[in-house]
Every structure is written in C-alpha cells, then in structure tokens.
Amino acid sequence: MSLDATLLTRLLKKDVSAFEQLYERHSRLVYGLVLRILQQAATSEEVVQDVFLQLWRNAGQYDAARGPFVPWLLTMARNRALDHLRRKSERQRRLEEQTDHLPSVFASPNYEQALDEKRKAERVRALMASLAPQQKRAIELAYFEGMSHTEIAAALREPLGTVKSWIRSGLLRLKEGLQQAKA
C-alpha cells in the first residue's frame, strides 16, 4: 500500500496527523497548479486551503480503483481554481493583482520528491511541445484558462468538432507519453 493510500485510510478516521502529512506532501504541488491558473498568490493560498478542507471533509470520495491519489487531488484543485475564476469579476481580479505579493514559503526540502516532480513537469512540457500548435493551444485554453469547448472554438475560429478532436487526441497522446515514461 502506498504512503498516500495509508494516509488516506487514516484520514478517513479523522487522523489529524495523517492530514498534516498529506498537506506537507502535496500542498506545494497543489499551490503551484492553482497559482498558475489564478495568477494571484493570496487567492491561490485561499483556494489551496479550500481544497485541503474539502479533502478533510470528503476523503471518502476518493476511489483508488479510478486512479492514483495525486491526479485526483490536482483535478479537485484545478476545478476549485476554475470555479473561483468564474465567480470573480475582472475588475476585482485586477484590483487584487495590484496589491498582491508573493509570500515566503517555508518547507523542509524533500529533494527526491522535488526531483521527481521536476522530471514529471519536464516530461509534460516535452510532450506538450511535441503536440501540434493548435492542439497545444486548445488544451492550454481548456485547462489553464477554464474555457469550454464552445468558447475555445470561438476563440480559435475553428469548428467545435475540430476543437474537441484536437483536445481529445492531444490528451490521449499526453497520457500515452506519460505511461511510457513510467514503464
């Protein structure tokens, strides 16, 4: 049983220590994703807190049979960040951007995990770079801008079916590339 699975089992029993360990293991990764989407440090910190609060309350929703824990956690974080973007008005975001400062991050270094995450990020970047430009742009608009397929089609001035095809085939190619990297 993986460490995350063990910690989740303990978390289901409301073990605070298990929660703290999960937070310590994954909060920086979650924060990095949320910050990339929201582009605001303070707001990103709030969303990360919401994500881990949701994990504390709803750890039972995770199903190991459907996939690994970290992608599930990152999907939850991505969805929270995109929900936050949709709720905020453009004017409020601009105001926060003017007053926002990056906080200092204090964490004990976990070099192996950091190196592993760096290698994964490099692999994803390489795979993204190997996609056709329109595929890459469509995926970026969907995952980092939170746009729907219809909005992407309008923004790129392409038929909806074409955009859906680009995204689907691009994601399949990314998935295959990541699975090959594991083997």
Protein traits:
183 residues; mainly alpha; Arc Repressor Mutant, subunit A; 0% strand
Can you identify the CATH class of the largest domain? Mainly Alpha
By oligomeric state, this entry counts as single chain
| Helix content bin | over 70%
Rg for CA atoms: 18 Å
Structural class: mainly alpha
**Main pleated-sheet profile:** none
H and E string: HHHHHHHHH
Q: Strand-residue fraction?
A: under 5%
Shape verdict: globular
List unreliable stretches of 5+ residues: none
The count of β-strands is 0
Short overview:
This protein folds into two domains: about 1-110, RNA polymerase sigma factor, region 2, helix turn helix motif (Rna Polymerase Sigma Factor, Chain: A, Orthogonal Bundle), CATH 1.10.1740.10; about 110-183, Orthogonal Bundle (Arc Repressor Mutant, subunit A).
Report what the structure shows.
By secondary structure, this protein is mainly α. It has two domains: 1-108, Rna Polymerase Sigma Factor, Chain: A, CATH 1.10.1740; 109-183, Arc Repressor Mutant, subunit A (Orthogonal Bundle), CATH 1.10.10. Helices cover 78% and strands 0% of the residues. The chain contains nine helices and no strands. It has helices at 3-12, 16-38, 41-58, 69-87, 90-99, 111-130, 133-144, 149-156, 160-182. Helix 2 runs antiparallel to helix 3 (41-58) and helix 2 (16-38) crosses helix 4 (69-87). The protein is globular, with a radius of gyration of 18 Å. The mean pLDDT is 85.
